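Many introductory courses stop at the sequence. We go one step further.
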Amino acid sequence: MARILLLEDDPVLGESLQDLLQRNGFEAVWVTDGEAAADAAFERKFDLYLFDINVPLLNGFDLLEALRAAEDRTPAIFISALRDIVSMTKGFAAGAEDYVKKPFNIDELLLRVRARTRGLGETVRYGGIDYDPAAGRVTRGGGVVDLGEIRTAIFGLLVTNLGRTIDKRELFDLLEHPSDQALRFHMSKLKQQLGIEITNVRGVGYRLETL
């Protein structure tokens, strides 16, 4: 069961969303301010963050930036009444994978949540390569392939998003010292170690094609 941290200061909406998520098979921990969300994220591991932005004590933007600075890579979706492009851009720059504008359609929100939590705990097979997201382990022919922490994370992101071009800024989040050169190096090593082809979409990012 995927565990979601919900940050929403509106008591009616927060309770409704928590109930909705739980009725649809998720474990939902609901908090009403940014500091409580930070404490919860520190104490427990979550599979998805669902954050409002304008909340007390610590806003959603600053909260997610702080989590990303602490190398927390948990996928995050912002839900907000802020509908302008500047706010959306700031949300993605803070490290969010998605941005949902209020008022939103409940079915659409569930689709987005399911998309971000699909396959959690399930081994993903790509050709003769297996990726175990729960263990963060890559195996081939029954043996573990030692890619190192960074390249394992990169491969995990690519293989769980087959056919989708991953923006290089999202990939930069996985690097200790982000740069185009460092990213090219890791992609080259991945191709050598696993014998796979990774498409470089120039100026945008990288993609692992569906077999």
